[in-house]
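Query structure, 248 tokens:
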């Protein structure tokens, strides 16, 4: 079932186009990867979907509702969550406290960002989420002391704690070691198994990550969607090889 779709979505900054006539549909239970060189428009696409940027033209529909004019907070409350290339969390709080704050936000308790308001009993959902994201042995650690791989997985877990229907992952393995990349790919496979209706959209430069996870790939260039197809279709397309993937 199509959950999120864009129609001619465009974004310009001071008249300079960063996203041009982007039309795409994203289904529940599907992993879609956005690929393309730096400056292709992937991050702008993400930011416009999440509501951080207002589309200059076109429209966005989520679950049958026109959300083009909704701000980022309203989209998040409706079930659209995202992560960033540089992991974001409350560095001075523990892993568990970060997860609980995100869980509260997902419950609509946006006005309780302090330790004294954290629930005394940890919901079982948080323990399950920590286990799935391989953070169950790190709940007492201060977030700012975590290595890169764990910080990125914490940000992923914080987004999942809000129980999203659409999850936008901007470079979920950026800066990770090869070992951490393998772990994170396994985590994301487990996440999709655990939440089979989740609509997952990610960007990645590591094509091993893309081909391990994606059911569908959008190739972007100069702010436009150049190709839209299965991994096999995109990998075998001459345009993909000449503009991004290379001959091999």
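Result returned for the query:
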């Amino acid at each position: 079932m199509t959950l999120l779709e864009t129609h001619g979505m465009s974004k310009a900054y001071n008249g300079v186009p960063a996203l041009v006539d982007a039309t795409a549909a994203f289904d529940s239970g599907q992993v879609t990867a956005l690929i393309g060189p730096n400056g292709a428009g992937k991050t702008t696409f993400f930011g416009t979907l999440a509501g951080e940027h207002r589309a200059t033209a076109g429209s966005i529909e989520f679950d049958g509702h026109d959300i083009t004019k909704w701000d980022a907070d309203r989209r998040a409350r409706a079930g659209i969550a995202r992560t960033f290339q540089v992991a974001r969390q409350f560095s001075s709080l523990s892993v568990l406290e970060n997860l609980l704050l995100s869980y509260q936000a997902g419950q609509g308790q946006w006005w309780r960002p302090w330790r004294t308001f954290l629930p005394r009993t940890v919901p079982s959902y948080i323990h399950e989420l920590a286990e799935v994201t391989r953070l169950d042995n790190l709940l007492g650690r201060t977030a700012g002391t975590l290595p890169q791989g764990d910080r990125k997985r914490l940000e992923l877990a914080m987004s999942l704690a809000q129980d999203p229907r659409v999850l936008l992952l901007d470079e979920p393995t950026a800066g990770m070691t090869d070992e951490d990349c393998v772990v994170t790919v396994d985590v994301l496979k487990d996440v999709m198994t655990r939440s089979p209706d989740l609509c997952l959209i990610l960007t990645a430069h590591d094509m091993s990550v893309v081909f391990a996870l994606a059911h569908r790939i959008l190739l972007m260039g100069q702010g436009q969607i150049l190709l839209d197809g299965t991994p096999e279709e995109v990998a075998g397309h001459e345009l993909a090889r000449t503009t991004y993937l290379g001959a091999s």
